[in-house]
Amino acid sequence: SEIPLGTRAKNEIATEEEHTPIKQDISKGELRFFSYGSIPFNYGCFPQTYEDPNESHPDTNRPGDNDPIDVCEISEIPLRTGVIEPVKILGVFGLIDEEETDWKIIAVSLQNPFFSQLNDIRDVERFLPGRLDSIRDWFRNYKVGDGKPPNRFSHDDEPQSKEYATRIVAETNQSWKDLVAGKLEPGKLYIDLAKRNHSSNNGNCRVNSQVS
């Protein structure tokens, strides 16, 4: 987990640094906080995934954002920054953020009381009404206070199924494997990281050090 539910500090894995620590973003020399409001979910990423900035996804017509794939964990209990939490994939939003594809996996923690009942995206509204609306609204508007336009979504703003989301995770995992193997041209944040891991020839890209 990078950002706990109900907080505003914009923490993120520093993919450009060795050992990829989780750090708070800096904007214009100041620590970055969300201006739209506290984040309404636990936010993290999946290990060993990579959203390739060199290739546009056919369903969004936008390139990847050069980061691990993001995960929105929908429980009501905040997860501590840095914790590794087992989750079940339920679906995905296709966020288009500043003309980049930025998939947002919807997932639920093993500790959630509805874990066994939540098995696909359609179950979220049934057991947690309004949760998907709050996620969509937050991602649409969280940069508006910084003077940027609202974000957009693929698929007519609708979240996609567990099957679709699982396929997206598999695609980004393959991109990560290709990155580590030196088959992809690294994006700007990954240039030094990819070189270090490729030269070590062990395939253990440090981007997988944290997960939500």
From TrEMBL:
Region (Disordered): 1-22, 48-67
Compositionally skewed regions (Basic and acidic residues) per UniProt: 9-22, 54-65
Cofactor field: Mg(2+)
Cited InterPro entries: Pyrophosphatase, Pyrophosphatase_sf
Keyword Metal-binding: yes
Pfam families: Pyrophosphatase
Keywords for the protein's UniProt record, in alphabetical order: Hydrolase, Magnesium, Metal-binding
Similarity comment text for this entry: Belongs to the PPase family.
Organism name: Hirondellea gigas
Name of this chain's protein: inorganic diphosphatase
Gene3D superfamilies in the record: Inorganic pyrophosphatase
EC number: 3.6.1.1
